[in-house]
Each structure stands twice: as structure tokens, then as C-alpha cells.
Design brief:
12 strands; six-stranded mixed beta sheet; alpha+beta; single chain
Length: 194
Amino acid sequence: MGQLRLERHLHGAHVVLMCADDAEEQAEWVLSVLTRLPPGGLIPGRTLRFGWSSLRLDPRGDSLVVTEPDFDGDPLNDWRDDITVTLRIQGRMLETTQTVGTEPLFPRYGDKVAAVPGWDRSHRVAMARARAPEGTDSGWLIVPPGPPGDETFETFPVYSLLRRRPALMSALALPGGWVAEFEDDALVGYGKPD
């Protein structure tokens, strides 16, 4: 897998986007979205919401480089030039919602997820969007099999799943009321209980 560098002249600005070459189709879509911004919309330093993530237009010489939060470092404060993680996760989320035939409801990468202790050691977990997203709460709860104990829920930001169990990210755009089950890294079932 190689690195791809796409360059376009949009609204008088030279725009550069970098990602893995297997994300080219999604990268072209991002560039088409930038094309549809009104004249003057390509502002150096501008941050745009992109589903679960954000993209920022960082000035570099005569160019604007499309960047994403640094998910390998501090995504709340640092940015990087390669936007592969944003594109891949977005694609997986959309694939899941399209498979079940529902409109996506993306959490933000900094929104909180709640989990019953032990979820990260269990081969099988269920995820439920138990409540509607509110503020910085994604509404998601991760539960391992068995009855919950008296322990308090663990909460953490959505982006930390990238380090702890990235496969679970694929279900996070399902709207309220949906449940997804995972066996290790495989999505083995989903549904919306009555």
C-alpha cells in the first residue's frame, strides 16, 4: 500500500490531500465537497466536520493541506497531513449503516462512550446506542456478556477505540436504539430491538 498525494486548484487555492492509495475514492469525494464550498470558503485554518472526524485546511507555503486530528498522538490538540484514518473509519461506518438501511448518526471523535468494566478483555461484546447523543455523550454503551457488576462504568472518548479495539468503530454511526454484537473484530449481528 502506497501513499497518495492529490492536488487541485479550487476557488483560486492550491489544495493538497494525502492518504493511503486504497482511500483514493473517498479522498476524491472530500475534494468534491471542498469544490462545493462557496467562493471564499477555503480559509487557511478552517476546520470542517467530516462525519465522525474533522478536517482542517492548514496553510503551507502557497498551498492548503487537508489535515486530520493526530489519532496516534493527541487528537484534541494536534493535526497530521495524512487523512487515511478519517477516511477509512468513515467508510466503515457508512458501510454498516448502508448494510442495515438506516441514515448515519455520527458521533464526534471526542464524544464519550460508556463501557462496563471487562469489555476490553472479552472476546464478545454488545454495543447499544442506549440513548440519543447529547452534548459530548455519544449515547453508546459497550457491554461484555454476563450480568453487570456493581462497578461504575468506564467512560472514554470515541477516538480511544482506535487504540483499544478499532473494529468497534464500524458500528458507531448507527442511530439510537440500535445494538451491534462483535466477536473479536467481526461484526456478527445487529438490530433494533422493539
